[in-house]
Amino acid sequence: MRRIAVVGAGQAGLQLALGLLADGCEVTLVAERTPDQLRDGRVLSTQAMFGPALRIEAAAGLDLWAAEAPAVHSVDAALVVPPGVRALEFTMTLDEPARSVDQRIKLSRWLELFAERGGSVEYRSLDRIGLHELARRHQLTVVATGRGELAGIFQRDPRRSPFDRPQRALSCLYAHGVGAPDPAAGPRARMHALPGLGELYLQPALTRTGPCDILLWEALPGGPLDVFGDGPAPDVHLDRIRALLAEHLPWEAELWREAEPTDAGAGLSGAVTPTVRRPVAELGSGVDAVHVLGVGDAVVVNDPITGQGANGAARAAQAYRRAIREHGDAPFTADWMCRTAEGFWQRHARHAVDFTTALLTMPDHLQGVFAAAAEHPEVARRLANTYAEPSDHAAWLATPELTAGYLASVGR
To answer: Structural domains in the chain?
Structure first.
């Protein structure tokens, strides 16, 4: 029986740990928080999961909220110019519905499932020394967290890291009582681009107290939308949201008149630097040297503008689980770790990074795609499904020439 340790109880770590347990491995999971601490804490993310990632969860028996979480089939998009004018509008239809489940619900239940199914859980924080000791006791150690001291064990890869600072100031709030633009149309996500200011995303979701809406600001740092850096309490957070909506998106302000935060931990603010790190780290030296393998946010951190975080983590956990299973009884060498991580980078992660970089920088040819989407539903549909399957970015969005060729084929 393979002895494997997983450090980190997020989407990637828990999904991988549960999968390895199902494959007959002896798995130790190191988690910083208990299920109750997760459930009662602050929201962790916005986590819109697209069809491919949901299918991965379902195949692993982990899609436990399909009957409760709102199914989102489309995204209403708008380009908004001052003073609050919708200059361009279109609807992007997804081939498979997306869903968002508050990670406080998901991760706490998965953590309980792991223990119920015979996994060993150690509730503690690890430093480099503790990780080294853990790795020496296991045949393979996978690090699935980029938090705390462990954030520095995997070196930044400058060739693959497009930025050296945050590109957006981020702020999200979970709320009840948000109105719907068209209640008869069913749950729909909304995306507003405000040139020179940032973006606003709204999505239906499931939280601890039932269905809700999540608002995510992607503000250009230092700009008029960047007003949440002090981490305000949810009520103050909501007041600032209302003020911004009234000034920049008055039709959304009307929908938020009766809104209220879902709970005391409903708000989250901060920023991330999109980063790609080398996936293998060496701890110790000489005969004591061991290698550990990174997965999920420990290796690839994307800005949430394209929603790739939880989706990429789900895909990475699936890929690593398959690679471990196919490796049989062979030793988990540093070379095997590098090959496993590089295979996932080439198949999926690089495309997510490239697509996210494009949305953050919005080159001219991508601006043309958004304009074309307002005229051609098939362009809007393909754009929507590139969020779900970012590898399609390489086929039609990666260069001006590819984009021009595709748009010509649809008559633009």
So the answer is: 3-62+101-163+274-359 (3.50.50.60), 72-100+167-270 (3.30.9.40), 363-409 (no CATH)
